[in-house]
Amino acid sequence: MRYLVAGGAGFVGSHVVLALLDAGHTVVVLDNFSTGHRDAIPAGVQSHDVDLIDYEATAQIVAQGPWDGVFHFAALSLVGASMQDPFHYLRQNYLTSMNLIQACTAHGVKKIVFSSTAALFGGPERPDPIAETALIQPGSPYGESKFMIERVLHWADQIYGLKSACLRYFNAAGADPKGRAGEDHRPETHLIPLTIDAVLGRRPALKLFGLDYPTKDGSCVRDYIHVTDLADAHIRVLDHIHDHSVVYNLGNGRGYSNLEVIQSVERVSGKKVPWEPAPRRLGDPAVLVADSTTLRQKTGWSPCWGELDKIVETAFVWRQNNPGGYKA
């Protein structure tokens, strides 16, 4: 098969590229490299330096099909930044996605897999765990932008027949178990790599945002899903959108608190993590845990790297072996 991966130089996108290559498929990457890394793209994989905000340039690449499917990971993705600059997030994520989706409908693409988010569920009445039927009430402009894109995909199916899978996943983490790719955001905002860098002495003491949440230890609880398991789910879902679109929540179904992440890094590294408390961040819910029952039943997917220590260990090995990230 031949696939186009928008945002294939980013964290999740690069791991999906690896999974597709491992399965024997041909992959073409489309990325503007504003946050992704050229070195994250494996040797021999064709890539195009294109910004999705440019419809004509985007359409020219999509026109180079046929494609057996398109994967869409390209987006601004920081909750906190979206609270500080909401119009930029809403505009950028919506328009870039609209351009890609429109180009797909114009050039005969039949399937698209969209990287959505658990940030759709930001209201105070969230169930635990969160199923697809939960009330959609985004707690940030970032979450709102992803829901807007889901609605565009709905109408692209209704009017043009473009079948989509919207995967609302939770906290992507870890690194390729073979050491070929890992997490390298600039700046880094995710808890696991920040904690690892703190224990390795590469940054000051970790700041833990909020210890007064209504959880077992007062810190936020999140559903961490290994990025390799995420990639597996993206590929599996392709076989289930031949004649209808789907929306699935995607996570391990088990929550770990921020303090438990610190304890896991300490177990894996054998060192104490330097950390200090900090005020809550705007837009952070207390608990986000996925109910992935529907995805598991429909596709046969289940996580192979579900234990927190396994997730942390792969991330730790990659960051230890790549102290400067991809740009070293």
TrEMBL record:
PANTHER family: UDP-ARABINOSE 4-EPIMERASE 1, UDP-GLUCOSE 4-EPIMERASE
A matching Pfam family: Epimerase
Protein name stated in the entry: UDP-glucose 4-epimerase
Entry-linked InterPro entries: Epimerase_deHydtase, NAD(P)-bd_dom_sf, UDP_G4E
Signal among keywords: no
Catalyses which reaction(s): UDP-alpha-D-glucose = UDP-alpha-D-galactose
GO BP terms in the entry: galactose catabolic process via UDP-galactose, Leloir pathway
Record-linked Gene3D superfamilies: NAD(P)-binding Rossmann-like Domain (3.40.50.720), UDP-galactose 4-epimerase, domain 1 (3.90.25.10)
Cofactor: NAD(+)
Residue span, NAD-dependent epimerase/dehydratase domain: 4-251
Organism encoding this protein: Acetobacter okinawensis
Name of the top EC class for this enzyme: isomerase
Pathway: Carbohydrate metabolism; galactose metabolism
Family stated for the protein in its record: Belongs to the NAD(P)-dependent epimerase/dehydratase family.
Keywords attached to this entry: Carbohydrate metabolism, Isomerase, NAD
GO MF term set: UDP-glucose 4-epimerase activity
Highest taxon in the source lineage: Bacteria
